[in-house]
Amino acid sequence: MLANTDCVKCHAQQPKEIEANGAAHKTQIGCQDCHTGHRPSSPNNIPQCSMCHDGQEHFKLQGCTGCHNPHSPLQIVLKGDLKAPCLTCHDTQNAQLEANPSKHTTFACNFCHAERHGVIPECVQCHKPHSEQMTQGDCGKCHQAHQPLVVTYGADTPNASCGACHTTAFQLLAASKYKHRDVTCVTCHQDKHKTVPQCSDCHGLPHAEGIHKKFPKCGDCHNIAHDLNK
Ligand code: HEC
Ligand code: HEC
Ligand code: HEC
Ligand code: HEC
Ligand code: HEC
Ligand code: HEC
Ligand code: HEC
Ligand code: HEC
Ligand code: HEC
Ligand code: HEC
Ligand code: HEC
Ligand code: HEC
């Protein structure tokens, strides 16, 4: 009869792995809960995971030991292109990717969440910012990784971030003498990219009715919002 403490006399590696990173396979079970018997009398003493893990979507996967070394079960090295296995635990991220098709939708999850479980990449590992002033900290103001083409933004987004692409609007407004200069881009173009406001959203119809009838467009007298130079 063998005790769990005997194994190390002939097998150096597995006890060392379990000691270091055995997780619940160290604290809740011993060698012989998995390895029942020993050769030569028990020629196959390698356990099936399903002996103890059953009843969840994740446990229906093939090839458990391709991801988990049973002696260090949480030291997971992610190999190949993985998506379906991730979805056994994370379906909301994929739902978002599918509902908002972009190039990101076509990638495996571990194209971005690479090597180890739970790694979060920075956008700037793969993309250049829109301007030199912009950093990783800004990306999340406008984009989310799982729906990158749905651009939304908060009230704290600085004009310079929009100005990275809209140089004309940015420069006209900054040079303007009129009070719109002190209004931010996102105060007028609220929340969602490409929203364009009506002047009357903020000002109503400020002049006499007859004037608005005769000149229905504010721009007839006020030029454009970025440059109220009339
Ligand atoms: C006296 C030395 C000795 C002790 C003690 C010992 N083993 Fe082994 N074990 C061996 C040898 C030799 C093999 C065969 C190695 C080979 O074929 O490469 C082996 C093979 C194995 C295998 C592989 C079986 C397979 O099909 O590949 C497992 C699992 C195993 N031992 C587990 C244990 C466990 C668990 C303990 C402690 C309860 C233990 N051994 C104690 C010598 C020992
Ligand atoms: C959670 C179940 C479990 C526990 C606990 C466990 N093992 Fe294993 N062990 C396995 C599985 C499964 C394999 C086959 C690994 C594979 O196919 O990649 C294995 C393989 C082995 C092998 C064969 C060589 C190898 O790595 O393939 C030895 C020897 C071994 N274990 C020894 C031990 C010893 C000693 C302990 C206790 C210190 C232990 N195991 C604890 C599940 C376990
Ligand atoms: C003899 C029973 C037994 C076998 C066989 C077994 N496990 Fe476990 N495993 C447990 C127990 C008990 C726990 C802790 C409770 C739980 O998470 O269900 C556990 C936990 C785990 C954990 C989480 C570890 C933690 O600390 O949170 C992983 C991962 C795992 N097992 C993978 C495997 C894989 C992969 C196999 C097959 C190679 C396997 N187990 C085989 C009993 C077993
Ligand atoms: C594609 C890689 C992959 C495969 C294949 C895989 N797992 Fe996992 N498993 C993971 C990841 C990633 C986690 C999450 C680990 C964490 O939370 O740190 C995990 C967690 C676990 C856990 C602990 C969490 C829980 O829900 O209890 C157990 C147990 C487990 N796996 C067992 C298995 C079994 C059994 C199989 C085969 C039927 C298997 N795994 C196949 C990657 C995989
Ligand atoms: C067995 C279940 C399980 C599997 C399979 C699994 N995860 Fe996880 N994952 C978790 C748990 C539990 C957490 C921690 C709790 C949380 O933040 O939701 C987590 C967290 C994460 C995180 C966030 C870490 C953070 O800091 O917020 C990422 C990213 C992640 N997993 C990606 C993946 C990828 C990619 C795969 C497939 C290769 C995968 N997971 C497979 C259970 C799993
Ligand atoms: C691991 C690399 C990687 C990471 C990390 C990454 N991306 Fe991407 N992204 C790509 C690749 C590759 C493309 C496709 C480029 C092409 O085809 O020109 C892409 C495309 C895009 C697109 C255009 C989508 C389309 O369908 O046209 C946007 C927007 C985008 N990424 C934003 C981001 C943002 C924001 C982050 C961070 C939250 C991020 N990406 C993180 C690799 C990455
Ligand atoms: C293009 C790179 C990329 C791809 C592909 C990708 N992610 Fe992410 N993921 C990220 C980034 C970056 C974050 C951090 C949050 C953010 O910036 O929106 C993240 C966050 C997460 C989180 C943490 C919780 C959350 O939602 O913020 C989980 C879990 C996760 N991703 C799982 C997945 C799964 C599962 C897949 C595959 C279906 C996947 N991711 C595909 C880049 C990616
Ligand atoms: C102020 C909002 C804003 C910020 C901050 C921002 N983006 Fe964008 N991004 C956009 C808009 C708007 C588009 C264009 C969408 C379109 O063409 O409809 C875009 C497009 C992209 C694209 C698609 C290819 C391209 O260049 O047109 C990538 C990749 C991208 N952004 C990455 C990033 C990264 C990385 C960061 C952080 C360094 C970032 N973005 C910060 C608003 C922003
Ligand atoms: C990555 C570059 C990029 C960034 C950053 C960006 N935009 Fe855009 N924007 C575009 C592109 C490309 C278009 C489409 C241009 C076209 O259709 O002629 C556009 C269109 C617009 C339109 C609609 C124009 C029309 O004619 O309907 C508005 C309004 C707008 N952007 C405002 C903003 C605001 C506000 C910000 C900052 C929160 C911003 N943009 C950030 C690239 C960008
Ligand atoms: C999101 C709200 C908003 C929108 C949309 C908007 N404005 Fe304004 N406007 C303001 C604010 C705020 C002021 C400054 C009021 C103050 O400080 O008294 C202002 C001031 C003005 C002034 C006075 C300028 C000055 O320097 O005295 C004029 C004229 C004006 N707006 C015309 C327009 C016209 C024309 C449009 C459409 C092309 C428009 N506004 C769209 C918010 C808006
Ligand atoms: C027929 C020309 C004309 C039209 C059309 C016109 N405005 Fe004006 N607006 C003026 C003049 C002239 C002033 C006074 C300028 C001054 O006092 O320096 C003015 C002033 C304003 C002011 C500043 C009022 C204040 O109290 O400071 C706002 C705001 C304004 N207009 C908004 C609008 C909006 C919104 C429209 C369209 C619905 C519009 N205007 C259409 C000629 C016009
Ligand atoms: C006071 C409100 C207001 C502010 C502040 C504002 N816009 Fe606009 N923007 C408008 C209105 C209204 C239009 C529609 C054209 C018009 O009538 O002037 C417009 C049109 C646009 C367009 C499409 C037409 C064009 O000129 O290319 C873009 C792009 C744009 N704005 C970007 C910006 C950016 C970037 C900022 C900040 C630097 C900004 N806007 C600040 C109200 C504003």
From TrEMBL:
<dbReference type="InterPro" id="IPR010177">
    <property type="entry name" value="Paired_CXXCH_1"/>
</dbReference>
<dbReference type="InterPro" id="IPR036280">
    <property type="entry name" value="Multihaem_cyt_sf"/>
</dbReference>
<dbReference type="Pfam" id="PF09699">
    <property type="entry name" value="Paired_CXXCH_1"/>
</dbReference>
<protein>
    <submittedName>
        <fullName>C-type cytochrome</fullName>
    </submittedName>
</protein>
<feature type="domain" description="Doubled CXXCH motif">
    <location>
        <begin position="62"/>
        <end position="94"/>
    </location>
</feature>
<dbReference type="InterPro" id="IPR051829">
    <property type="entry name" value="Multiheme_Cytochr_ET"/>
</dbReference>
<keyword id="KW-0732">Signal</keyword>
